[in-house]
Sequence to fold (143 residues):
Amino acid sequence: MTNLLSSLAVFFAMIAAFTPLLPGLIPRIGLLPLYRTRLIRAALIITAWALAVAACVNTPSSFVALPLVLLLTIPTIILEPQRVFVSLDDPKHVPPSQANLREEALVLGFEEDGYATAWPFETLAPRHLINDQVRDTPLLVAY
Fold:
């Protein structure tokens, strides 16, 4: 019985830890589930901890599940989608002369009716998403 409790604890912790990877493994589900899983992941981790503690209470010598559940809880906290996909909203626009960019700096640009704007890759790389508005055109820049 204790082995079953320990196995279930590790299984639930693994499901919680690797839930953010599901859209990469199964692309058809899209990114929307990532933003709806916080409660489910919390319930899975609480269940995993309860099962691991129950296994230790039943047989104190079998505490193997506790370190495994602890190790799997860490990615569950770190891999929160809200931490992974942090967008830059309404970045400040400055003229090119005030941008302090090197001549060889890479930028991603947008031009509409003679009005142009650009975002440096060094701004895009850590964020991957920029919500901006150029004149009356809302833009989502993804890198």
User: Anything to note?
Assistant: The mean pLDDT is 79. Residues 38-58 form the longest helix (21 residues). Residues 88-142 form one domain.
